[in-house]
Amino acid sequence: MKGFTDDQRERIQEDLLDAGRTLFAQYGLGKTTIADLTGEVGIGTSTFYQFYDSKEALYLAVLDAEGEAIARRLTEEGVTEGDDPETVVREFLRFLFDEIETNPLVRQLIVSDELDRLREYRTPEEREIERAEEVAAIRAFTDPFVEAGAVHGDDPELVARAVGAVPYLTLHEEDIGVDHYPEVRDFVIDTFARGLAVSEE
């Protein structure tokens, strides 16, 4: 990029990602402007467009980085380690629900209409790749249970997609009732994990 050293480009890139994460989490994609982003970083609009074609492109980059960070935390905390499928699935679901409910960036994405808006900026092929990667991440720890007959269901893909579907309960928090939601969430997690695992009795 003309006018910037490699170090400057790297710094601006990091600053844009940091600013994007902060502003998108606080205001959402719709209410965050490019002027907000450039003002936070201290660059001009023309400089922004040397890095991203649109604020949506930056948002997608922020989400990719956040997804990688969540995956690292999942590994570092050993959430999916263990031999008991009921415990592993329960802890995995609790981890995901906690991310959705406490991570402002993830919550902003899930509870708003921004998922629909962002679909316009991903090709069908890219969206399919994303879904496949999400399922593969779950299959990494559910497949051994399926192969061992430790969970109900002999289709690894179906089992993984079923596990991944449970956190979408968060979309219905208001329908369930804010006061009742935590109890319902915990009941669903426990019941699903217990029901998925094959009883040793």
From TrEMBL:
**InterPro entries, alphabetized:** Homeodomain-like_sf, HTH-type_TetR-like_transc_reg, HTH_TetR
Identify the DNA-binding region of this protein by residue numbers: 33-52
Q: Which residues form the HTH tetR-type domain?
A: 10-70
Keywords of this protein's UniProt record, alphabetized? DNA-binding, Transcription, Transcription regulation
Q: Which GO terms describe its molecular function?
A: DNA-binding transcription factor activity; transcription cis-regulatory region binding
As given in the record, the signal peptide range reads none
- PROSITE patterns per the UniProt record, alphabetical: HTH_TETR_2
- Alphabetized PANTHER family for the sequence: HTH-TYPE TRANSCRIPTIONAL REGULATOR BETI, HTH-TYPE TRANSCRIPTIONAL REGULATOR RUTR
Q: What is the protein name given in its UniProt record?
A: Transcription regulator
Q: Which organism is it from?
A: Haloferax sulfurifontis ATCC BAA-897
